[in-house]
Amino acid sequence: MAEGGEHENIPAELEEDPPEEKETKDTPTAAGGKKRIFQKELRCMMYGFGDDQNPYAESVDLLEDLVIEFITETTHKAMEVGRPGRVQVEDIVFLIRKDPRKYARVKDLLTMNEELKKARKAFDESTYVNVA
Amino acid sequence: MAEVFAGTSGQQTAREDSERIFEGGQNKDEVATTKKRPSSSEETAGATTSSTEKTTEGEPPEAKRLVLERVGSVEEGETRKTKMEQLEEERQKMQVLVASFSEEQLNRYEMFRRSAFPKASIKRIMQQMTGTSVSQNVVIAMAGISKVFVGEVVEEALDVMEKSGDSGPLQPKHIREAVRRLRLKDQVPSTKFKKTLFH
């Protein structure tokens, strides 16, 4: 990865989560439940992928159900694969090996995460040395 | 694929873990390369097989632990240079493209880049399901592929909408049709209906 340009290219999944609000912090009921977890992010995402700037509420709800089902199914399958009862990165990679986009995305994310961790560690160490 | 499930020794660094994971996948399916534009022919000459050199399908040469790559190539030395060049070229092309966006396109692009699922929520969902804790890498991976999943559904739904001549915001019927099509392509995981092998 080109090192100089990373400050503009950090994927959103590797950023810190924005501070959470307290209202929606209860357990997500089964898909279709009243608590909507991903409303805000999903609306932004849908717009980013080509939908209208104001997507229909029913569409957002439907997509949220789909995403939760996706996460649930993938987690279940991952629990059966590899070490049963646990979900590890290798299991996820195994499950999406046939899907080129998802595979490439996971690869990029994890690679960049490693590089960021290394960079941060090097930065911290250099700070420490300077102070000492 | 065996390497992925070989016993994870705690001594391996996290970086080696990623390499090991993705290398195991890449040797068998040339997966990540399919989505990239196969622009220059010399780089993709070897792309159909794995990133190892001069081997037929089968064992990768043991000593050659190649760094994570996006495109297969012939020589290890050349690999790194052409990979860097390719990445740089790609970045430049993106810059030119983004520079020519209209304001609405810029907005949309920004939303595309910056939207992401909150890791805390995903972690909570997964931990409630498994009953155990999940590592941070798993949450990151899950957030990433969920976003890709949303993208696939929305794009397919937009296709459906276009074909049926509607316009405006996406409607649930488009989304449902899109999901139906993606299921046929096996891009939506489902454990509800097992395929019967033999009738």
TrEMBL record, chain A:
CDD domains, sorted: HFD_TAF13
One GO biological-process annotation of the entry reads: transcription by RNA polymerase II
Q: Source organism's superkingdom?
A: Eukaryota
Q: Which GO terms describe its molecular function?
A: protein heterodimerization activity
Q: Where is the composition biased (Basic and acidic residues)?
A: 1-10
InterPro entries referenced in this protein's UniProt entry, alphabetically: Histone-fold, TFIID_TAF13
Which parts of the sequence are annotated with region: Disordered? 1-33
Q: Where in the cell is it found?
A: Nucleus
One Pfam match: TFIID-18kDa
Q: What keywords is this UniProt entry annotated with? A: Nucleus, Transcription, Transcription regulation
Assigned GO CC terms: transcription factor TFIID complex
Q: Which family does it belong to?
A: Belongs to the TAF13 family.
Function in brief: The TFIID basal transcription factor complex plays a major role in the initiation of RNA polymerase II (Pol II)-dependent transcription. TFIID recognizes and binds promoters via its subunit TBP, a TATA-box-binding protein, and promotes assembly of the pre-initiation complex (PIC). The TFIID complex consists of TBP and TBP-associated factors (TAFs), including TAF1, TAF2, TAF3, TAF4, TAF5, TAF6, TAF7, TAF8, TAF9, TAF10, TAF11, TAF12 and TAF13. TAF13, together with TAF11 and TBP, play key roles during promoter binding by the TFIID and TFIIA transcription factor complexes.
Complex formation: Component of the TFIID basal transcription factor complex, composed of TATA-box-binding protein TBP, and a number of TBP-associated factors (TAFs), including TAF1, TAF2, TAF3, TAF4, TAF5, TAF6, TAF7, TAF8, TAF9, TAF10, TAF11, TAF12 and TAF13. Interacts with TBP, and more strongly with TAF10 and TAF11.
Record protein name field: Transcription initiation factor TFIID subunit 13
Tell me which species this is from: Branchiostoma lanceolatum
Automatic annotation (TrEMBL), chain B:
Keyword set, alphabetical order: Nucleus, Transcription, Transcription regulation
Q: From start to end residue, where is composition biased (Basic and acidic residues)?
A: 14-33, 54-68, 77-87
Q: Tell me the ranges covered by the TAFII28-like protein domain, including all copies.
A: 96-181
Q: Which GO terms describe its cellular component?
A: transcription factor TFIID complex
InterPro entries from the UniProt entry: Histone-fold (IPR009072), TAF11-like (IPR045127), TAFII28_dom (IPR006809)
Record's compositionally biased regions (Low complexity): 41-53
SUPFAM superfamilies associated with the record: Histone-fold
List GO BP terms, alphabetically: RNA polymerase II preinitiation complex assembly
- Region: Disordered; residue ranges are 1-87
UniProt keyword Metal-binding present: no
Where the protein is mainly located, per its record? nucleus
Q: Does the keyword Transcription apply?
A: yes
Q: Recorded GO terms, molecular function?
A: protein heterodimerization activity; RNA polymerase II general transcription initiation factor activity
Q: Where in the cell is it found?
A: Nucleus
Q: Which family does the entry's similarity section mention?
A: Belongs to the TAF11 family.
Protein name (record): TAF11 protein
Q: What is the lineage of its organism?
A: Eukaryota, Metazoa, Chordata, Cephalochordata, Leptocardii
Gene behind the chain: TAF11
